Amino acid sequence: MKKIAVIPGDGIGKEVMSACLKVLEAFDFPFEYVFAEAGDETKEKTGEALPDETLQICKESSAVLFGAAGETAADVIVRLRLELETFANLRPAKSYKGVKCLFDNVDIVVVRENTECLYKGLEFEVKKGVTEGIRIITEKASERIARYAFELARRDGRKRVTALHKANVMKKTCGLFRDVCRRVARDYDDIEFSDYYIDAGCMYLVLDPWRFDVIVTTNMFGDIVSDLIAGLVGGLGLAPSANIGEKYAIFEPVHGSAPDIAGKGIANPSAMILSSTLMLRHFGYISEAERIEKALEKTIAEGKTTPDLGGNLKTDEMVEEIIKNIEE
Ligand code: NAI
Ligand code: MG
């Protein structure tokens, strides 16, 4: 039995989580779901957005499924990522038939280093009008993220890893990152490898996104590039993510609690469901993950969706369609 901490959170977080659990329950996974509280409502009730009890449950679990928080998102999810030491942030983007987007047949996953670079908070005011920020890049973290990207490519049957950096200008920091990626690439002759400068890479992403498969990059570039690829395929309702650590992993949709539609029963459950298939892949349930993803794809292609994707179904109705397609 694997313990899964389930944190629905606020607003549509609750709605998409219950939808997602229905889909998982169509299978017989050896999972024990342990529900835990966090978010705005929890803060109102207990004074804490992320109570110790919730953190404890997460630390006793193999994975965390997180819905969304509201205004307390930073106190909840950002803290959770730190506490659970998740070093890799995974953001896949895929175009779906039947969804309006810039490009068809795009299927890219960004593997973003999540612990260092410019996001360490090492910023100072040297004197009035002069500030500095320190960029930390280590061999250890670079190697860990590069290996993760190649292992993920292998596991998911992906063909190519592309590293994005700016080693021509940031010779030391990006130079180290690039060199480590190139070295790790030699251990994976079954996976193609290339590296681009981040600026050129962004241009290629927009002109010719099909040349990318797995992208591995440092924290700040990864933050920007993962939003860029989300834009290529259009839409928050379809954007899942994973935060992977040595011991723990958190799976969550990119979207928030969507107060404008919360309570109406029309939230798109796809991003949450796709986050859960990232969890299944993480545990090695690859064929089950594929079955859910294919069923979701078919449901969307048939136009049986929530209003944000142009359909007229409620969350529950869309889930029923997905489960029907799984069982077919
Ligand atoms: P949001 O992602 O909640 O909503 C942005 C827009 O996208 C809204 O119009 C919403 O209706 C729509 N949308 C989002 N997810 C959808 C879904 N599954 N189905 C259909 N439509 C969907 O972002 P916003 O409005 O900037 O923030 C709202 C609250 O969520 C804030 O309190 C913010 O702090 C929080 N937030 C939490 C996050 C988290 O828990 N990871 C991430 C982003 C925001
Ligand atoms: Mg961002």
UniProtKB/TrEMBL annotation:
Entry-linked InterPro entries: IsoCit/isopropylmalate_DH_CS, IsoPropMal-DH-like_dom, LEU3_arc
Species, as recorded: Archaeoglobus sulfaticallidus PM70-1
UniProt name for this protein: 3-isopropylmalate dehydrogenase
PROSITE patterns xrefs: IDH_IMDH
Domain of life: Archaea
Domain spans labelled Isopropylmalate dehydrogenase-like: 3-322
GO biological-process terms attached to the record: coenzyme B biosynthetic process; isocitrate metabolic process; L-leucine biosynthetic process; tricarboxylic acid cycle
Keyword line: Magnesium, Metal-binding, NAD, Oxidoreductase
The family this protein is said to belong to: Belongs to the isocitrate and isopropylmalate dehydrogenases family.
GO-annotated molecular function: 3-isopropylmalate dehydrogenase activity; isocitrate dehydrogenase (NAD+) activity; magnesium ion binding; NAD binding
Cofactors demanded by this protein: Mg(2+)
NCBIfam families in alphabetical order: LEU3_arch
Keyword Metal-binding: yes
PANTHER family to which the protein is assigned, alphabetical: DECARBOXYLATING DEHYDROGENASES-ISOCITRATE, ISOPROPYLMALATE, TARTRATE, ISOCITRATE DEHYDROGENASE [NAD] SUBUNIT ALPHA, MITOCHONDRIAL
